TrEMBL record:
One of its GO terms (molecular function) is ATP binding. Residues 243-267 are annotated as: Disordered. PANTHER family: ABC TRANSPORTER ATP-BINDING PROTEIN ALBC-RELATED (PTHR42939:SF1). This is ABC transporter ATP-binding protein. Residues 6-232 form the ABC transporter domain. InterPro entries: AAA+_ATPase (IPR003593), ABC_transporter-like_ATP-bd (IPR003439), ABC_transporter-like_CS (IPR017871), ABC_Transporter_VariousFunc (IPR051782), P-loop_NTPase (IPR027417). The lineage of its organism: Bacteria, Bacillati, Bacillota, Bacilli, Bacillales. Keywords: ATP-binding, Nucleotide-binding, Transport. CDD domains: ABC_DR_subfamily_A.
Length: 267
């Protein structure tokens, strides 16, 4: 039977002899929303960039709906929409021209491009040049291109950066709509409020190690409201300390310093 969702097994990244992301396992189910949280330079973007095939893992296996990234890259990538943390849009193009360009690259129609622009509230601004867009508008355009064609998995790097409170709320609504359609979403963020509101599961990354991965119910049971803010304050001071092997995980297996732990117990 085909495995559904995203499966990352013993994935790690080292550059020039330095480990940027320590080995970890992660499963994202269809329709599940996962937040990747952590401070600057923790390794969040590197994890996302490995999922979208921009950065090649040094070891491990990545599969989406049974398709292996390494063995069948084209079909694997067709299932993914990616929003990078920053991007230089082609100079001189309007929002509509940009979206139609992305749509043509992905074999999607102009009306799908228009629908995606509407979904992020850029329909009125469609004939404006992207070069005059505010940061928040550019973020929404990047989100729209990632959503094009409703891929199985959306990978969003800092999607809420630059969004005002209204669009932060709209982001939560949009993600919830995608989730209801069975689309999985994994996103990195420094803004724990957005993660609190929309995630089903949250990972905390410190110095390239996933120190905790748990369902939101688990965080809420432990910390109550604003669960991720409290979890972050508890985990963050440990940044310069050795990571203990007893870190709790939920259904995800996390490998810390080369040893494997499932649900907080040795596997
Ligand atoms: N190509 C590279 N060569 C060398 N080091 C790199 C490379 N890419 C990333 N790194 C390092 O890996 C670490 C993790 O970087 P990454 O961009 O994944 O962090 P991040 O959690 O997304 O940070 P931020 O929140 O600041 O965007 C950083 O120390 C970074 O300097």
């Amino acid at each position: 039977m085909t495995k559904t969702g995203l499966h990352m097994m013993q994935v790690e990244k080292a550059i020039g002899g330095k480990t940027i992301v320590h080995p970890f396992d992660l499963h994202v189910e269809p329709g599940q929303v996962v937040a990747v949280c952590g401070g600057n330079g923790a390794g969040k973007s590197t994890i996302l960039r490995m999922i979208v095939g921009i950065t090649q893992p040094s070891a491990g296996t990545i599969e989406l709906n049974g398709i292996n990234l390494k063995q069948d890259r084209v079909n694997y990538l067709q299932q993914i929409g990616y929003m990078p943390d920053h991007f230089n849009f082609p100079a001189g193009l309007t929002a509509s021209e940009c979206m139609r360009f992305y749509a043509s690259l992905r074999g999607r129609t102009a009306s799908e491009a228009d629908e995606a622009l509407k979904a992020v509230g850029l329909h009125e601004a469609r004939n404006k040049k992207v070069s005059v867009f505010s940061k928040g508008m550019q973020q929404r355009l990047l989100f729209a291109q990632a959503m094009l064609g409703k891929p199985a998995l959306l990978v969003l790097d800092e999607p809420t950066n630059g969004l005002d409170p209204y669009w932060m709320g709209a982001f939560v609504d949009l993600v919830n709509t995608l989730k209801r359609e069975g689309i999985s979403v994994i996103f990195s963020t420094h803004q724990l409020q957005a993660a609190n509101e929309v995630a089903d599961r949250a990972l905390f990354v410190i110095n390239g190690t996933i120190v905790r991965s748990a369902a939101m119910e688990e965080y809420r049971a432990e910390y109550g409201e604003l669960a991720l803010h409290r979890a972050f304050s508890e985990l963050f001071p440990r940044e310069r300390q050795p990571i203990k092997h007893s870190e709790k995980t939920s259904s995800v297996t996390v490998t810390i310093r080369g040893r494997e732990s499932r649900n907080g117990r040795d596997a």
